[in-house]
Write a structure and sequence with these properties.
By secondary structure, the chain is of the alpha/beta class. The chain folds into two domains: about 100 residues, Immunoglobulin-like (Sandwich), CATH 2.60.40; about 300 residues, TIM Barrel. About 25% of the residues lie in helices and about 25% in strands. The strands form four sheets. The protein has an eight-stranded parallel β-barrel, surrounded by five helices. Strand 11 and strand 12 form a beta hairpin. Helix 6 packs parallel to helix 7. It starts with 10 loop residues before the first strand and ends in a 9-residue tail after the last helix. The relative contact order is 0.11. The structure holds ligand IDC. The site of ligand IDC has 15 residues, from strand 19.
Length: about 475
């Protein structure tokens, strides 16, 4: 885990007046000159703490349009390393770093910008680089880097302005994976805590303006997982209808400042490839429609089972580009082997993922548990895996894996304490009034509309509401 972030933060701005200079320089090239005009400006912002830092690098193309690009810079201190980057392919040789564009962000028109970033480590000192190149051309007119941190009495500059609201989405903005964590717009690890719907085909009357008001305001839920079953009278029977239902719930979550986890709820058959074409169609539609929103997270397959990790990975590597073509910066969550048990329920473990991760950036891996069925051996594996993989508990129950039975309070508490400690986000199965132990609401609640009545909560609902409504204390700088 990261240590407490150092309050200092360094900020370097190249561009502005400098950018105008570069433009002026490109403009004097004779029009007959076949050589492309080049020019660039870079804003490099870091958030650093003892031994580690996150860097955000905004690159602006001031020259002719390019279809792919390579950003280059040199670390001033030999002890600085890129550990894990995103939105580009990162390489380091000695102190020299290059970031090569991905398929989705390679095209940069004149005046267009893109932002990439990485987590780094440092020993010695941690000064920012002061010179950058884009496709070999120096980004001209660099302003000097402040070498001392700003006085602690003034607020440190941030890559994002301070939040203008108090909802989870207003505070945290666009999320992204950083190292093994889910990070907010300030590049700081956060944990989201919330609830999952039951199958939309059965419990639509549980997801109304009134129920979602209660979930957002009274429960203080950070997220709504939208479980769209594919089989069992789900998506496959009415693709347009279920797509609309999901989009409507994304909007309702957004209106209340909650994140929306779009769950392509495959279960039986367990091979995600069975639904590959449906997944591509569905995710093309929802990612195009919701690309501009900051609150959407994509969960591309719920619980693969009876298939190898390499099959799941192959599925992921076909579905993720469909999403990224429309919504390049969204977090995508990939199910794991053995009903999203990291392989444990089928005799494996997370090593198969660590050794063969999905070849895409900004990806997390799913872990599911049911507290009365899954105990210490699963907790131990999650703890072990969490040091190496970004995990998201997109579904869990306080009862047995059947979704029914008595609440196991001791195991549920052990699980939730572990997830809190590791800052692993979670959604509980279910915010519904199904007649089963995992449901948070008593049967009949949804028809009656008595969502805010404490008497409507089951034992599981009471436990989860108590956990979820404690303050989040999301970092804002
Ligand atoms: C269960 C529901 C139950 C429904 C059943 C079949 O609780 O009402 O009849 O699905 O669709 C999962 C699955 C989730 C299951 C849940 C409980 O993701 O769909 O819901 N569970 O069995 N994985 C482990 C447990």
């Amino acid at each position: 885990m990261f240590s407490i972030p150092h309050p200092s933060r360094r900020h370097l701005l190249l561009g502005g007046a400098v950018g105008a200079l570069a433009l002026a320089a490109t403009a004097v090239l004779p029009s007959t000159n076949a050589m492309a005009a080049t020019g660039c400006a870079v804003t490099y912002t870091t958030n650093s703490w003892q031994g580690g830092f996150t860097a955000t690098v905004a690159v602006k193309n001031l020259g002719d349009p390019v279809t792919n690009w390579t950003l280059g810079f040199t670390f001033p201190d030999g002890g600085q390393r890129v550990v894990q980057g995103w939105s580009a392919t990162w390489q380091q040789s000695g102190s020299a770093v290059t970031a090569r564009s991905m398929d989705y962000n390679g095209a940069l028109g004149t005046g267009a910008s893109t932002t990439v970033g990485f987590n780094g480590s440092w020993t010695g000192s941690n000064p920012n680089p002061t010179s950058f190149t884009l496709n070999g051309t120096t980004c001209t007119g660099g302003v000097s880097t402040p070498t001392t941190p700003p006085p602690t009495t003034t607020a440190p500059p941030t890559t994002a302005p301070p939040p203008t609201g108090t909802t989870p989405v207003a505070i945290n903005g666009q999320l992204r994976v950083c190292g093994v964590n889910l990070c907010n717009q300030y590049g700081r690890p956060i944990q989201l805590r919330g609830m999952s719907t039951h199958g939309l085909q059965w419990f639509a009357n549980c997801y109304t303006d009134a129920s979602l008001d209660v979930l957002a305001d009274d429960w203080q839920s950070d997220l709504l997982r939208i479980s769209m079953y594919v089989q069992e009278q789900g998506y496959e029977t009415n693709p347009a209808g279920f797509t609309n239902q999901v989009n409507t719930l994304v909007d309702k979550a957004e209106a209340r400042g909650m994140y929306a986890l779009i769950d392509f709820h495959t279960l039986t058959p367990g091979d995600p490839m069975y639904n590959l074409d449906r997944a591509k169609t569905f995710f093309a539609a929802v990612s195009a429609r919701n690309a501009a929103k900051k609150n959407v997270i994509y969960e591309i397959t719920n619980e693969p089972n009876g298939v190898s990790w390499s099959t799941i990975r192959n599925y992921a590597e076909q579905v993720i580009p469909v999403i990224r073509a429309n919504d390049p910066d969204a977090v995508v969550i990939v199910g794991t082997r053995g009903w999203s048990s990291l392989g444990v329920s089928e005799g494996g473990n997370s090593d198969e993922i660590v050794n063969n991760p999905v070849r895409a950036e900004n990806v997390m891996y799913t872990f599911h548990f049911y507290a009365a069925s899954h105990g210490d051996n699963y907790r131990n594996e999650v703890q072990r895996a969490a040091a190496r993989l970004p995990l998201f508990v997109t579904e869990f129950g306080t009862v047995t894996y059947t979704g029914d039975g008595a609440v196991d309070t001791a195991s549920s508490t052990a699980w939730l304490d572990l997830l809190d400690r590791l800052k692993i986000s979670y959604a509980n199965w279910t915010f519904s009034d199904a007649a089963e132990g995992s449901a948070a609401l008593r049967p009949g609640t949804c028809a009656a509309g008595t969502f805010g009545n404490p008497a409507s909560l089951t034992e599981s609902g009471t436990l989860l509401r108590n956990r979820i409504r404690t303050p989040d204390n999301f970092p804002t700088s």
